[in-house]
Design goal:
The complex is a heterodimer. Chain A is of the alpha/beta class. Chain A is built from 13 helices and 14 strands. By secondary structure, chain B is an alpha/beta fold. The longest helix of chain B has 22 residues. In chain B, helix 1 crosses helix 3 and helix 3 packs across helix 9. In chain B, helix 9 links the parallel strand 6 and strand 7. The chains are: A alpha/beta, B alpha/beta.
C-alpha cells in the first residue's frame, strides 16, 4: 500500500489502452481533459476525442447521440457537474433509453480538497443510484480503476463511474478480477465487517490493522459496485460477523451506507453503522486535513467498528 | 430531384392531422396544438425527404429525425403510423397503460423513434452526437431535429447550437416550429426569444426562413440545406399552432388539452370526413 496513484490517472491510461483495441470508443470532455486525464486519449486518437466545452448538459446529450449510432462514449467531467448539473440529461437521455454511455466522473468526494464545497461531490452516488438502468461503480485504487474501464466497455448499458483526484494507495495486484456487481473480500475476519467503497477501502484496511492490535479481527469488503450491489457477499458477511460498518467518501445518506442498509434490513438485520460525511457540505483544506475533520480516517472507522461490535 | 406529388403530401398531412386528433382524444390528454403546427413539416420529411425504411427501422444508413419538442409526440406517432412503422390502431392507445405510444417519445418502445425526448432541449443535444457519429463514420446520413420556439429558452439548446457550428455539422438540419405560443402565452410575453434569426446566425448557423405550412417552401429549404457546407442549417418555419382545426388555431389553450367528443367530431369534419 506504499505506492500511491490517483484513480483518475489510471482511468486516463486505461482509456488509451481501450482505444487501441476498441474502435467504437469515443471520448468526450468538458474543458477539463488535463484534469480528468482524457487528454492522453485525445493525443493518441484525436479524431475520436470531442471537447464539448464548458457545457455539461450538452456533453451528456451529445454522448447519448453517439450511443444511438453504435459508439461507446466515455464522458468525463468533474463528479459535481456530471451528477449535479447534468443530472436530468443523464436521467432522460442516457438512463431512460438505456444507452451505452459511460459517465466517468473525476474529482469526486471531499479529497478534491482546496477547491471547497462547490466542487466536492458528496451526493453523486446517491443521485446516480436512483436512476433506473444505471450501474454505479466506485473503484478503490489504480489497478481496479483500470479494470473497471475495460469492464464498462464490455457491459452494454449506462454506467456511472467515480474517480478521485488525490493519489491513493494501490491495494491490488495486476491480476485482480474486477467484475461489475461482485464485491471483493479484501481481508478476512470474523468479528465485524467493513464494507468500503472507493478510496475508503485503503482506510478500511488500515482500520483493520489498528483493530487487529487490539485482538479484533475485521473483514474488509471492497464494494466497488454500488449498484447493482452484491447482496450475497453482504448477507454472508452479516451472518458470519454479526456487525457491519460501511465506509464511503460520500454523504451517509443515499450512497453505499444506504444501499447496504437496504439489503441488511430486508434480509438479515444486525447492528450496523455508517461512516461518511454526516449530511454536511465540505470546505476548503488539504485532503488529509479534511479526512480527519470529517471523520473519514482509518482511526474513525476503527472507532465505529468497536461501537458496533459492542451492540452485538 | 424527383417530381413532387403534392396531392399525396396533402393527403398524408390530412391523415396525420386526423391521427393527431383521434390519438389525443382517445388519450384524454396530450398536446394537439404544437402537433398540428408541425404536421406539414413532418409530412415532407417522411414522405419526401428522409431515407427511412419502415420495414427496417434500425437500417444503418437511414437519416435520423429527432423530435426535440417531445410533447408533440402525437404528430410523430401519426406520421410514423402513416409511413407504416406500426399500425394506426396504436394511435388510439396513446398514453394508455401498457401502450407502445408513451406520452412523450420512448425510443425503446416505438419503432422509428430515434431518441427518447420530452425534456426540452435534450433531443436537440442528442442530434449533435448523431451528426458527429455520422461524420466520424463518413456516412451519408443527415440528422434532422425539430425544436419548438419556446424550447429555445432552454440553455442546453445554445450549448448544442455552439457545438454544432464548432464541429461544422453540415449534415445537421434543425427546424424551428415557430408558432409563437407556449404554455403560459406568447413567447414574447413569457420570455422573449427575439431576434431569433440573428441569434442562430451569431451562433454560426446558416438560417433560412419559411412558411412552415407551404410544401413548396419546406421542400425547397430542405433541399437547399443539403448544399450548405461547413455549417449546420436552421430552418425557422413560421407556423400556426393548431393548424387545420379552426377552433384550435392560434389558441394557447390548445397547447395541452384534449378535444372532447364533439370537438373531435368537429375537428375531423373540418379536416375532411369523420374517419
Amino acid at each position: 500500500m506504499n505506492n500511491k496513484i490517483a484513480t483518475r490517472e489510471a482511468y486516463g491510461k486505461a482509456l488509451v489502452e481501450l482505444g487501441k483495441v476498441n474502435e467504437k470508443v469515443v471520448v468526450l470532455d468538458a474543458d477539463l481533459s488535463k484534469s480528468t486525464k482524457t487528454a492522453a486519449f485525445q493525443k493518441e486518437f484525436p479524431n475520436r476525442f470531442f471537447n464539448m466545452g464548458i457545457a455539461e448538459q450538452n456533453l451528456m446529450g451529445t454522448a447519448a447521440g453517439f450511443a444511438t449510432s453504435e459508439k461507446i462514449p466515455f464522458v468525463s467531467t468533474f463528479a459535481m457537474f456530471a451528477s449535479g448539473r447534468a443530472f436530468e440529461i443523464i436521467r432522460n437521455s442516457i438512463g431512460y433509453p438505456k444507452l451505452n454511455v459511460k459517465v466517468c466522473a473525476t474529482h469526486a468526494g471531499i479529497t478534491v480538497g482546496e477547491d471547497g464545497a462547490s466542487h466536492q461531490a458528496l451526493e453523486d452516488l446517491a443521485c446516480m443510484r436512483a436512476i433506473p438502468n444505471m450501474v454505479v461503480l466506485n473503484p478503490a485504487d489504480a489497478v481496479s480503476a483500470k479494470k473497471a474501464v475495460f469492464a464498462m466497455a464490455e457491459y452494454n448499458g449506462p454506467v456511472y463511474a467515480r474517480f478521485g483526484r488525490a493519489a491513493v494507495p494501490v491495494i491490488y495486484d495486476e491480476d485482480m478480477n474486477f467484475e461489475i456487481g461482485k464485491g471483493i473480500e479484501v481481508k478476512e475476519g470474523k468479528d465485524a465487517a467493513i464494507i468500503a467503497t472507493g478510496i475508503m477501502v485503503a482506510e478500511a484496511i488500515k482500520a483493520r490493522e489498528i483493530l487487529s492490535k487490539k485482538g479484533i479481527e475485521v473483514r474488509v469488503i471492497d464494494m466497488h459496485t454500488i449498484k447493482p450491489i452484491d447482496e450475497e457477499i453482504l448477507i454472508k458477511a452479516a451472518k458470519e460477523t454479526g456487525a457491519i460498518v460501511t465506509a464511503e467518501e460520500h454523504n451517509i445518506i443515499g450512497g453505499l451506507g444506504s444501499a447496504v442498509a437496504e439489503v441488511l434490513v430486508e434480509n438479515y438485520p444486525i447492528p450496523m453503522k455508517r461512516v461518511g460525511t454526516l449530511d454536511t457540505f465540505g470546505e476548503s483544506g488539504k485532503p488529509a486535513e479534511l479526512m480527519k475533520k470529517y471523520a473519514l480516517t482509518a482511526e474513525d472507522i476503527a472507532k465505529v467498528v468497536e461501537e458496533v461490535i459492542n451492540k452485538k | 430531384m424527383a417530381k413532387v406529388d403534392y396531392e399525396m403530401l396533402k393527403k398524408n398531412a390530412t391523415e396525420i392531422r386526423k391521427g393527431i386528433i383521434k390519438a389525443v382524444h382517445a388519450a384524454g390528454s396530450g398536446h394537439p396544438g404544437g402537433s398540428l403546427s408541425a404536421a406539414d413539416i413532418l409530412t415532407v420529411l417522411y414522405f419526401y425527404k428522409m431515407k427511412v425504411d419502415p420495414k427496417n427501422p434500425k437500417w444503418e444508413e437511414r437519416d435520423r429525425f429527432v423530435l426535440s419538442k417531445g410533447h408533440a409526440a402525437p404528430v410523430l406517432y401519426a406520421t410514423l403510423a402513416e409511413k407504416g412503422f406500426f399500425s394506426k390502431e396504436e394511435l388510439l392507445k396513446l398514453r394508455h397503460i401498457g401502450a407502445m405510444l408513451q406520452g412523450h417519445p420512448d425510443m425503446k418502445g416505438t419503432p422509428g423513434v430515434e431518441m427518447s425526448t420530452g425534456s426540452l432541449g435534450q433531443g436537440f443535444s442528442c442530434s449533435i452526437g448523431m451528426a458527429l457519429a455520422a461524420k466520424l463514420d463518413k456516412k451519408d446520413i443527415r440528422v434532422y431535429a425539430l425544436l419548438g420556439d419556446g424550447e429555445v429558452q432552454e440553455g442546453i439548446v445554445w450549448e448544442a447550437a455552439m457545438a454544432a457550428s464548432h464541429y461544422k455539422l453540415d449534415n445537421l438540419t434543425a427546424i424551428l416550429d415557430f408558432n409563437g405560443l407556449q404554455i403560459d402565452g406568447k413567447n414574447e410575453d413569457v420570455m422573449n426569444i427575439h431576434p431569433i434569426k440573428e441569434k442562430w446566425e451569431s451562433f454560426g448557423w446558416h438560417v433560412l426562413e419559411i412558411d412552415g405550412h407551404s410544401f413548396e417552401e419546406i421542400i425547397s429549404v430542405l433541399d437547399k440545406a443539403d448544399e450548405i457546407k461547413d455549417k449546420p442549417t436552421m430552418i425557422i418555419a413560421k407556423t400556426i399552432k393548431g393548424k387545420g382545426v379552426s377552433f384550435m388555431e392560434n389558441q394557447v389553450g390548445w397547447h395541452g388539452t384534449a378535444p372532447k367528443d364533439d370537438e373531435k367530431e368537429k375537428a375531423l369534419k373540418e379536416l375532411g370526413g369523420a374517419n
